[in-house]
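COMPLEX REQUEST
Ligand: flavin mononucleotide
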Amino acid sequence: MTKRLIFNGFSMNVVSHIYHGLWRHPQARQAEFNDLDYWVDVLKVFERGKFDNFFVADVIGVDPIYRGSWDTFVREAVQIPVNDSSTLIGALIHATRNIGLTFTSSILQDHPFSFARRVSTLDHLSKGRIGWNIVTSVSHNAAQNFGFDRIVPHDERYAWAAEYVDVVYKLWEGSWDEGAVIADRAANLYADPSKVHRIHHDSKRYKVLGPHLTQPSRQRTPVLFQAGSSKAGRAFAAANAEGTFIMSLNPESARKLVETVNAQVEAAGRKAGDLKYIQGLSFVVGSTIDEAKRKARDLDDYASTDGNLAHISRDLGIDLGLLDPDRPVSELEIEGVQGYVAYYEEAFPGQKPRVRDLANALAYNTRIVGTPDSIADTLQEWRDAGVDGVNLIYQTSPATYVDFVDHVTPLLQQRGLAQSEYADGTLRERLFDDSGPTLNDRHPAAAYRGAFAGQPATGLPKRARG
Ligand SMILES: Cc1cc2nc3c(=O)[nH]c(=O)nc-3n(C[C@H](O)[C@H](O)[C@H](O)COP(=O)(O)O)c2cc1C
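STATUS: Structure written out below.
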């Protein structure tokens, strides 16, 4: 049987997400991002196309990192203003029925206790449709907004992420046993106290007693996504994530990435297939190649090189506005997204990227301009390379999505490359054929199930005990 692809609608609660300058195009509605009606319209398109998941990116800072200032970011709305992503997800639950709702939250921005409670609440309200994109934040300002002088060093961010997920895993998986909730009206017994536990977490950054204050939601732990592609990022994904967002530059390099990371997944005691690879792509669709090229040229008239350079400067933590574009990247120390260099080296073995190569890598190397047929052929190549799904990046929203859903999705459905109906169940069950609603037993969080039974429920400070 043909393995279908997973489709994510990818967006951000901003005017300008990845294709900067395009918000000015006459058909672009992305500047309506403050208006919930706009988002409801976008999500209707996704559900019409039977997309699996809506994925909202997020950032928590803006740096003076393009030509020594943040003016370009503000002037061109390059990811600022940016509204909170989990609030948007909450507002969209009732406007949607089937699509997964995945939001980004950085380990910097929220204490794991309150974060775990928010996620459980969203998962209850959505009947198990929530995903979490775990990020560590690549900007100085993100760190400065949360008590640091500068960005937390690269690998230390991942050590912190490991500590953070340990806390939330304990709360989601270990604090309430299966069967804790009884809801017996006659006995006035809602939940069995012997099945609700403290977690007694005590580590470098966090001390959390518990218990988790929400009862288990359908998925308990939301579907876990991650997007880092450095060495440390891939190790974290291999151990923890169920989906990883990748930006490989061609199917062959994606194949290498999938093989390498799958070996790491297995080394972590999980199975290949436990981690899905979701490739970022954008499309310009025409009924002929010429028409598609014409549409692409029309869109490109609105593109902002400054905006695109500012964005990638932020991601890399390097001011590309002040550097010689021919300078080899290997001469630079990158505290930001090291994964971009890995993507380049996988696509062009033996070549070392220069600054200008990375500047172009983000958006335009992963844009496919073609007819529905040629696009379907290309997607088949990505699928055959081992990629499990696509993160559909907009140029103009919702027009990029509408074109895809109206013209490409039907063909993909005919070829068995896209689902034609939603299956029943939670987001996790829909993404993984062989999964129940909760994490499988191979995932590290599963070790916390039943782990806190029999722990004393003490914890009141002495004076309060009286
Ligand atoms: C497709 C994709 C989406 C991402 N989305 C976000 C995001 O929404 N917020 C964020 O702070 N970082 C985001 N990142 C950055 C990663 O989460 C990660 O922090 C970054 O790649 C640095 O890690 P690395 O050096 O391991 O690659 C994204 C990266 C990719 C490739």
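REMARKS: The mean pLDDT is 93. The chain is about 35% helix and 15% strand.
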